[in-house]
Amino acid sequence: MSRSPRTSIRDGATQREIDAAMAAADRVGPPDPHHPNRDYPPYRSSALRHPRHAPLPVVDPEAVELTGPVFGVTDVSALDNDLTLGQTGEPAGQRITVTGRVLDRTGRPMAGQLVEIWQANAAGRYAHDLDQHPAPLDPNFTGFGRCLTDGDGEYSFTSIRPGAYPWRNHLNAWRPAHIHFSLFGTAFTQRMVTQMYFPGDPLFPYDPVLRSVTDQAARDRLVARYDHQLSLPEWTLGYRWDIVLGGPSRTLFEDR
Amino acid sequence: MTPPAHPSPADPDRLPPTPAQTVGPFFGYALPFPGGARIAVDGEPDPITVHGLVLDGAGSPIPDALVEIWQADRDGSLAGAPGSLRHDQVTSAVVGRDGTAFTGFGRVPTDADGHWAVRTVAPGPHRPGAVPYLAVAVFARGLLHHLHTRIYLPEHAEGLRAQFPDLPEGRLGTLLAQRERAGVYRFDIRLQGERETVFFDFP
Ligand SMILES: [Fe+2]
């Protein structure tokens, strides 16, 4: 059963109320310090969408979940990793390169991994009909991409820097700029969906999604690093973000 | 800022994992793909449909969830082929699998009424004597870290019971699909509340 007290945050709460709830959640801490507590009252829509029972631990070296789906050259196209292409014109905003390695918890690079991303445009609007906040859509930017990691486990995307955007979690709620990431690993246990943030964003302390990861060191692992070596003159600013996939796999069991 | 790839003090031999974050509300134009619900290959003699609702703690359907399936083929093989997201080489559009090779992977967003469905095949035992099941990952707005569950078909109820002898009957039942008619099975996923689905963790 859930450990934290049943608190619920009212509709139309102020940032001050959310701040107090985030501070209270920080004191409790999550059951797993590496991940968000699914029961996180400051993120109001989590209230009815988290299980009250703790997940049942499975330690079975023959579980189906120790393997997972495989992707290959037919699952990506050459243009898929450049979100600025594919339309008639250039998208608005600042061009960025986002690159990094996908590693397992032993530090081994994971080659041939499908990486999927999606993001808002430079004005902070998603190409999704349910995103109706008054910022312009960009006809030259739909905002999703895919690639496979290379032999060193490295992925790379060219995109534009997404804007921050408002949402209705509480009054004056704004998400810091972020890119959504989806990864598979070599086992279904390693499946991961997360968000990458940009260094130094002033919205970090106000955002209950990022702060649902209550451990500062863990939270820092969601923030990319500006990498001047990756920036290209008069073209793009470079960000580096490595991703470590947890969860056992058949190969890890074989190593034990 | 902490560089990402360094050992954690508590577990010096292993890198700390990247934390999960919610899939949010706007994955719909990025993650779903054509034919994502069609796991069975063309000409499959005995396809099955598995479908249900994703429900919240108030019993309301969740219209912005994503359900993913990973499973063995009918012969128990877990060597799913690539090609679920096959691209057209001219337009770069995702056209989905070609229907010849079994990829074992399904991905479906819930509809406006919280409903999802996949067309697949009953998995075979992944080793001699194993109890087969469909592995499931559930993502949703409001869910900060995705959840794993399993779908067992009704003919494996005894095997399921033997696998989790400590689970009370009521909870066990949440892992069991209900046969509606020949080849059609119902499996609702309740994120919270009475009859909350059993979710798993893989430490
Ligand atoms: Fe977002």
Overview of the molecule:
The complex is a heterodimer of chains A (256) and B (203). In chain A, 48% of the residues are buried. Chain A has helices spanning 15-28, 208-211, 216-220, 250-255, and strands at residues 56-57, 95-104, 114-119, 144-148, 154-160, 165-167, 173-175, 178-183, 192-197, 225-226, 237-240, 243-245. The longest helix of chain A is centred in the first third of the chain and has 14 residues, at 15-28. The two termini of chain A are 32 Å apart. In chain A, strands 2, 5, 10, 11 and 12 form a 5-stranded mixed sheet that branches. By secondary structure, chain A is of the alpha+beta class. With 203 residues, chain B is mainly beta. Chain B has helices at residues 157-163, 169-172; strands spanning 47-55, 65-70, 105-109, 115-121, 134-140, 147-151, 178-181, 184-186, 189-190, 200-201. In chain B, strands 1, 4, 7, 8 and 9 form a 5-stranded mixed sheet that branches. In chain B, strands 3-2-5-6 form a 4-stranded antiparallel sheet, with no helix packed on it. Chain B is globular. At the A-B interface, strand 1, strand 2, strand 3, strand 9 and helix 3 of A face strand 5 and strand 10 of B. Strand 1 of chain A pairs parallel with strand 10 of chain B. The structure holds fe (ii) ion. Residues 175, 178, 180 of chain A line the site of fe (ii) ion.
What's the end-to-end separation of chain B, in Å? Answer: 28 Å
Class by SSE composition of chain A: alpha+beta
Radius of gyration of chain B: 18 Å
Give me the secondary-structure category of chain B. mainly beta
Radius of gyration of chain A, taken over Cα atoms and rounded to an integer in Å: 19 Å
The pLDDT mean of chain A sits at: 93
- Characterize the biggest β-sheet of chain A: 5 strands, mixed
Helix content of chain B: under 10%
Quaternary state reads: heterodimer
Query: Per the principal axes of the C-alpha atoms, what is the gross shape of chain A?
Result: globular
Number of helices of chain B: 2
Q: Would you list the SSEs of chain B in sequence order as H and E?
A: EEEEEEHHEEEE
User: Which chains make the largest contact?
Assistant: A-B, 91 and 79 residues
Succession of helices and strands of chain A: HEEEEEEEEEHHEEEH
The stretches of 5 or more residues of chain A where confidence is low (pLDDT under 50) are 1-5
Please give the alpha-carbon distance between the first and last residues of chain A.
32 Å
Task: Supply the number of helical segments of chain A.
Answer: 4
Largest sheet of chain B: 5 strands, mixed
> What bound compounds does this protein have?
fe (ii) ion
DSSP summary, beta strand count of chain B:
10
Family (chain B): Belongs to the intradiol ring-cleavage dioxygenase family.
Protein name (chain B): Protocatechuate 3,4-dioxygenase, alpha subunit
Keywords (chain B): Dioxygenase, Oxidoreductase
InterPro entries (chain B): Intradiol_dOase_C (IPR000627), Intradiol_dOase_core (IPR015889), Intradiol_RC_Dioxygenase (IPR050770), Protocat_dOase_a (IPR012786)
